[in-house]
Structure formats: C-alpha cells, structure tokens
Predict the 3D structure of the following.
Amino acid sequence: MPTAPQTTHELYQALKENDRRPYGRTRTVTAEELVDAAEQFAEAAPLVHALLELQEAYTYGSEPRKSPVVFARLLTLFDEQPDVFDERLRHMLFWRFKWVAHALRQLPEIPLASLRQWLTEMRHRYEKAGLGLQPYYGQAYQLAAHVGEDTTPAYELWAGRTRTRLSDCEACEICERALYHLVAGDDERALRTWEPVLAGKESCQEEPARSVSYALLPLLRTGRTDRARELHLAGYRGCRRNPSMSQEVGRHLEFCALTGNEARGLELLAENRSLFDEVDSPLDLLGFLTGVEVLLQRVELLGHGELPTAGYAGRTWTVAGLRAEVRGRADDLAARFDARNGTTAHTDRRRARLDRAPLLDALELTLRPRSLDDVAPAAPVAAPAARTAAAVPESLPELIARARELDEQGHPDAPACWARLRTLVAARDYTHPDDPAVGPLVRLRADLLADEASRAGDKDEFAVAADLYEEAAGLYDDAGLPGQAALARASALLAAAEVPAQGAADATEAKAAALTAAHASMVRLHEEAPGLAPYHEARLLRLRATALGLRLQTSGSEEHVAPVLAEVDLLHAFATRHDVVGQVSGALLLRASTYALSGDLPAAVTGIDALLDRLKAHGPAWHLPRTLGLRGRLQLGLQDAQAAHADLTESLRLAADWPADAVDTARLHGDLAQACMYLGRPDEALRHLTRSAELDLRHGSRTDAFCTFSNAAQLSLDLGRVEDCIALLDSLLAESDVASGELDDRLVAQLRLTRARALHAGDDLKAATTEFVALAAESAGWDDDPGSHAMIAAETAVLLGESGEFGRAREAADQALAAHARDPRYEQLSSCLRELARLQGQQQGPDGLADALAFLADAGRIADEARAAGYEARGRSLDSALAYEYGRVNAYAGAYGDALAALEKALALLGEPGAEQEHAGEWAECVRLAGAVEGIYLERPAPALTRLDAAVSRLTALGHTDETESLTSLAARLRDEE
C-alpha cells in the first residue's frame, strides 16, 4: 500500500478497493496494513470494518490459524462497545462464529475439547442474542462428520430444523446434505440433492465449485459421463490456483487420474504448483495432497514414474519422487487429525481414495486430448498405431542397399533406414563394410547429408537445406558419382531459391525471379552432367518442373502456366519411356496441380481421376493418399463438399498405412474441417481442426499449430461450447514457448482475446474484464496496428460498463477513439459507444443521462465520419441505430418526450419494412419501444395503439408474423389498462 489512509473516508475507500482484489497474499497483506491504519482513529467503527476484511482475507486465503485471532478482537470490541455494531455488522459478527468453527477443525493441533468448547460458546451467544440454533446444529454436524462419529444423530438434529437468517446459504447446505448421502453410498440421492447447485440455481462464494468437485465421481458411477465432463471443465475453472479451494483442485486431479486423462492431470498440477507452498490449512492440504497422490500413483503405475512434474519449490521433481514426498506428508497429516479426533476416519478416507480403480479407460475431457507419451520430454512423433512399421534389415550392407533402393523409388520407408544408418555411422566403433556393392564411406556420408537436407526442406529451413545439399554434392564428386552430385546440386538450387529475399521491395517478384534463375541453372546442369542414369534424369526433370510450378504458385501469372506444362510433358514422356513409375505419377500430379493453379478446376479433376485409376492399377500405393487429398481440395474449390469429404476421409484412411511423415495429415484434417463446415457439421469440423493443430505441433510447425488452434477455439466459442474453448486456450497458453515469449506476441494476444471473450460468454465478467484491460494496455503499443487496439479498447470499455465502472469505461473508450482516428473502425466503435450509453442509462437512470448522451454524441461523430468516407455498414445503419439508442437512453432517464422524438427519427431513417427479415425485426422493435413510451409512460394509449395496430397489419401482410408477437402483446396490455 503506497501511503496509509489519513482519514476514515480514505480508509473505507481503501477497504472497498481491497475487496475487489482476488483472495491471496496481496489482498491479505493489504488488509493487515489497513488494520494497522484503522487503529490510529479514535472511533472503533473503522477498526471493526478493517478487522472484518482481514478475517475474510484469512478465511478465503487459506490461513485458518489467523482467522480465530482476528475474530477474538472483534468479539472483544462487541462486548465492550456493542453500540458500534449496527444491524449489518452484528449479523456479520454472528455469522462468523461458523468461520471460526471451520478454521479450528482444520488445525490438528487444536484439541477436540477446544472445538467442542467453541461450539458451546457459539450456542450460548446465539441463545443470549435470541437467535435460532439451526446454524449451531449445522456446525455440530460438520464436526461429527469430520471426526467420523455419531454423524447420523447429528445430521438429523441439524437437517430437521428450520433455517434462520444465520444459516449457511442454500447452496452450502445442499452440499452438506448431498455429502451425507454420498458417504452413505447413495450416489443417486446425493446427485438429486445436488441438482439445484449443479444446475446453477443456487450459488455462493464457494459453490458450485465445491459441490462439482465432489459430484464428479458419482456422476461417472451412475453413467452420466457427459455431465461429468461438462462440470469438470466449468468447476475446475472456479477453483484453480485458489489456496482456499485446494481440496477441490485435488478432487479434479483425482477425476483426471480415474478417467484416462493422466496427461491433463499433470498439466493441471503444473498450473496449481503454487498450492504446495501457499496452502496454510492442514485439512485443505491433506485433501489436496491426497488428490495429487492419486494422480501420481496412476501415472507411475502406467510406467511413467520418471516423467518430470511440478512440485514443491526449490528442486526438480519426477512423478515417482514427488509421489514419495507427497505420500509421507499426507500420511503424517492424516495421522495427526486422527490422533486429535481419536478415530481413524482421515486415514480410512485417504486409503479409500488411493485404492479406487479407474472408472473409465478414456473420457475425452477437452478438445486437446493427450496421452502421457505426448507430454514426455522430446516425445518422438510416432507413426499411426494402425500401421506396422517396415522391418529394417539387420545386416549393414543390406541396410545401406535397402535405403538407397527405397530412396530411389521415393518410398516413405526410406527415412527410417537413413535414420538407423545415421545412428550406426555416428557410433565410435563404426566400421564401414569393405564391399564394392556398398561403395566407400564418403558416398554413405553424402547420402546421409542429402537425407538431412530433405528433412530440413520439409521444415522450410531452406538455407540449411541448400548448404547440406551442396556439401553432399561435393562428397558425391569425391565418391565418383556425378549423377548423384548433379541431383544434389539441383536440389540445392531449388532450396536456395525458396530462401526469403532480404530487403526486397517486392518479395513475390524477387522469389519468382529466383525460381526462374534456379530453373535455368538446373537446365544447364542437366545438359552438362555426365553419366546420368534414367532415374537421375527423371528426378532432374521433376526438379525443373517443380521450380516452374513454384514460380506459378508464387506469381499466379497466366504466362507462367505453359512453361510448367511443357516441363511436365517432358518429365511424363521420359518417365513413361524408361518406366520410372513414381515419376510418371509425379508428372500427372504436377499437371493436375498446374491446372488447379491456373483456375481450370474441371481439367484438374479430370487429370486427378486418371491418375487415381493409374495408381490403383500400377502404383505406387503411397501416392494415393496425397492424390486423394488433392482431389478433395479441388472438390472444395468446385463447391462439392460431400465429394471432398469422401475423398479426404479416404485419404486419411490410406495415410494410416504409411509412416507419419509420409503424408501431410495435418493438412488433410484441416481440409476436412473446411468440408465439414460446408456440410453443416461444425462439431466434426472442430475435431478435425484440433487434430490438425496437434499434428502440426508434434512436427514442430508451432506457428501453424497455434493458428489452427486459434481457429478451433473461435469455432468452439461460436458453437456455444464456452468451457471447451476456455480449457483449450488455458492449455495452449500454458505451453512453454508461450510463457517464454518465443511465440509471436500478436498470435498469443489473439488467443488471449478469444479466451477473454469466452470468459465473458461464460458469465465470468470479472475475469474477462481483467484480461481485456491487460490486452488493451498491451495493444496500446501496437503502433503498426492501431485498428486492432481500437477494437480491443472498445470491447474493454463495454465490459467495464457492464461492471458499472463508467469512469474507467470512458477512459478505455477514449483510447479506442484515438486509435480509431488513425485506423478507422466505424462500425465497431459506433456499436461500443451505443452500448456504453445503454448500459449507463439502464444502470444509472437520470443520474447517468449526461454521460450516456456524451457517448452517443461520440457515436454521432463516427456516423458522420463514416458517411463522409462513403463507408457502408455491414449490419445496422449507424444513423438509425444511433437514433434508436437515443430513444432508449432517454427512456431509461425518464425523458420520455425526447425518447419518442428520437424513436420517430429512427423509424423515419429505417423507412417502411420490406421482405428482409433483419430490417423488419429492427423496425418492429423500434415501433414497440415507441408504443411503450407513448402508451405507458406518456399515458397516450390511443395513438400508441394506432401505431401498433398499423405495424402489425403491415408486418403480417409481408409475412413477418414472428415480429408481430411483441407488438400484439403490448397492444393487449394497453387495451387492458384503458
């Protein structure tokens, strides 16, 4: 706290500000400082308020040892100066007797006799004050349940009594009743009892998050898996990283462990690593650690005990190491509670949790399901499980020969052979075979360099690839293999041409020129190279055609089409003549691709159809998935989504027969997502998007992966799958390259922006506003993109308005307006300002009218600017929408004459409705509000009814019957009141 409050007004203001902070050390320390500040004032009331705030901070900050001490001071003040406590403060004081009882139960060092003595004190105080004893019996039952003795009579004494003003809230009492049935083994009755809380009808500070965490396993046991999944996502978000809800976090970890989601459990554990050190409550810590142990035990049982995991600060942990540490600490805590209570209840409950068998082999909890193999460090990208990997020869000469044979064919199993050879050659004891058929070691080293260069090119590391190919060419020369050297040099030329030009004024033109030069060099190289075998010449022709194909793809110029087709014809004729099967199909694929690039999709499809027939008859079979994938993309271009979906699905099925990197399955899943969207199957599209992104991520294409994930998150939000969206984005934002700042900051900002919108859609206004405010501050520095800052600041302003913080909303709106002046966003800014005016008018009535009208005046200037710039809104007309909002805001403020005049203007701007549904709906709403203002508030029902009846007739004649319902209802009300 910068400076201590010097007046009681400043103190109360500081208390109010601290109350807006989340529970945790910052809020607690500030509350402690405010108590110190309150003690300087002569009157006791400021100190009472400060102590109440401090006790709340301790209670919800999981510091139970300190809460009773603060309450003792409050109780002393109440005994000495009861007049200081008005009705509200008195109610808070008696309410917090329960907080102290709860705090004492959490501390095993407090004797059981002291807990019972406190309940006796509570009963005495309640009786003396004439208060009902149901809250006392509630605490007595909770103590009995904690100890594990006499729970049934204690429950009946509490549950049968009538609630009072000091009873726990409905949600908390529902949870206690449900837990009683759960402990009795009646899952169905527990879930029926919980339903009002799980359905969101009852809630409080801790609910429904607490109830949800307990209900997850009963839901699974009774077959309600979808509900369990849904509640896990929403419930976890309500308790994560919260020390006072660490037991709930532990139960979510347990849920992951028992549903085949161990990898997600480890991810959530990492997110909550601070709880190991922040939870001061021994009882909460016991519950948390037991949930952690259930998870770690399961991971270790699955053979992943050496996986790294998050744990206590100060050292690195493996799953096995942390499990041993957690087990020792949790066993000790359970023993201490049992010693205090004189029972074995806590040890027994802990053992029951640890002994539970998994309830499901696999439950897909999120849009990003991952296995423990996926989260292992440097996890290799495995081939699909459906394929049995080709056997690699054991004999070194056979392995070398096999690798070269497969490489010559372009076979997808070649990389596995090269990878094995690379390992063998790198070994210290490697001895090269003295075999003329194998050739010298220098040739093998050249082969390995060429394979490495190919893999670098696949990763778009073109400069690296070019250097490696050149080095390989030199070694081939040394080995006396001019044909191989020519191929390597041609590949180097192509890779070098794809390196982005630095400082070029026109990057597209520069790349096209580089590819033209590379092609010319390849032609010369081809003409001058001696000793070319047919497969060398075919591959050189393929590289030449590829260079020109890439030039066409880069430039899109019609004049570049014919040269590609000419080269393709040369390749096809040569490969056919020499029966180089792979290059025949390669030529046909290039031809079809060229037709597609030139815009002749029917010709491309005809070519692909012929190629597919040939591949099915003559092979090579590994070209089928890629060819079907291309036909699927062409069908998308022809708007035949059904045919595209069939081709792409078959392509994916066939791709499973080959190594994972043989076919771009990430691209296939992405194209399938597009086909599914065209077919109106968005949920299926969502699955393909997330699969595509995960594959890109595993193959190292992280930027592409995060872009696709971003699209998936937006789609899930559009589908109303808010919790899925948030869970996906939380998982992505926890990735190491996001946390370290390696990923593009604008892409990260887009992920955070979507998450903030999802939080808002999920009614978490506080969290959404916090994220928007942070994004608005960051985007203010985007000098190259002021338009994006304008939109972010505008959304931020609206959320601040929804929170009632209109001063800050005005500041954010001013930022948006300043950015808009540099890069106009007419529609978005107008909508933001109108919504702010509506919110202020609705929340503040006449008191907020002046500021609301100021927002509308700004919106009016934007409408004028848009009109002058010739901008046409894609949605509502800016002018008619503004006039309508003037009417609504004035109506909120009671200025009904001005409201009606504004609505008349809006109707004039809109004109009479026509066939368009959207325009008819806007017109009908304007008529409805005008009728309400005129008929109800201005008490002129006759003209209002005339207006409404005419509108109903007009809309009915146009067939807009749905739009008449609100008008008919209002007219009926006005007639009833006449």
Q: What stands out?
A: Residues 379-388 have pLDDT under 50 and may be disordered. The radius of gyration is 36 Å. The beta strands are 308-309, 317-318.
